Amino acid sequence: MGRSRSSVTHGAALMLLFITCRECTGFTVDPPEDLVIFDPGHLGHLEIRWSPPARLINKTECPKHYQLEYFSTYKGGWTAIRTPGRSYSAQFDLMKDIRVKVFTLLSGPCTNGTMVKSKSYTELVQKPLSTGVEGTRVKDFICVFHKMENMECKWGRSAKMPATSQQNLYFWHKQLEHAEECPEYIISGGVRIGCNFTGKVLPDFTDINFCINGSSAEGALKPTFISLQIQNHVKPGATEKLYLRTAPDTQLELHWECPVGSVPEHCLEWEVEHSQEGPDGKIASQQILTQQKSLTLPLIHDDERNCFRVRSQLHKYCVDKSYWSEWSRPNCYPARCQGGKPHPRPHLLK
């Protein structure tokens, strides 16, 4: 029994000595090396690559991971990921600084089975390209995904843009091997002011990168880079059928049909504008938000004229943001005849 206790004590002493020796040797984990940012021509979707520290290349018994941190200008903060690989792809705004840093993470027998992170890191800051005539970037770039069927992007010309300049739009997403040019430009006054993607299927819930560049007699124009997801730029069609009638219990019942297009009905929310015109001609209005396609309101004063119109957008449970549709044509009770006198019966708007 005494021999067994002595053996355990001796083993513990050896383990303590092993740990102490590890600490005494000052074993540290170096940061990765050869950090580079590779641009495959995907308009902001870049590949970050690095190599393991030289001292760890031959230490195959010790698993190596890496912690990559990069500043996302779209999110306005740092993003961190851990990976056993030596490359990672991420989205960047090519008009701003690209800031990347990477640490080494080591475990296994080299670190007594614990995960050790390098105290220092390898960092790379890449400045945007300075090519192009100053003040020639396009402005007010807006994309609208009409009825979830046709994507259209437009832009404005800056005041300093040479009159003879011509813009080009290129786009890329993960389903494309290479960036492609706009399939159909929108022309106004002989210059390109937008791009129509009619017949071009663009994926939703994925980043689509755009670049608008161009040339002029004075030199290349400053490129503009934008990244967006098309489901956040949907504009539903206007409501075409709006029904209004009076109920027996002196109430106004309003209901309508979904607009034409490919927007899922369960994603729509509605704004109803209710205007009341009194005998004195004064008009009071209110807006009512609803996710139903009907509305019932009390008819309080018979001498008031009630008018309604509706519009729709996609709600926050389907997308991050959406455009409001155009308003429907109004429907009123009582309706007016051509002579201007009120008609006692409500009408159907088609």
UniProtKB/TrEMBL annotation:
Location(s) in or outside the cell: Membrane
Domain Fibronectin type-III: start-end pairs: 238-335
Record InterPro entries: FN3_dom, FN3_sf, Hempt_rcpt_S_F1_CS, Ig-like_fold, TypeI_recpt_CBD
Chief localization: membrane
Keywords for the protein's UniProt record, in alphabetical order: Disulfide bond, Glycoprotein, Membrane, Receptor, Signal, Transmembrane, Transmembrane helix
A GO term from the CC aspect: external side of plasma membrane
GO MF term (any one): cytokine receptor activity
Signal peptide positions on this chain: 1-26
Cited Pfam families: IL6Ra-bind
Protein name (database record): Putative interleukin-13 receptor subunit alpha-2-like isoform 2
PROSITE patterns noted in UniProt: FN3, HEMATOPO_REC_S_F1
Membrane topology: Single-pass type I membrane protein
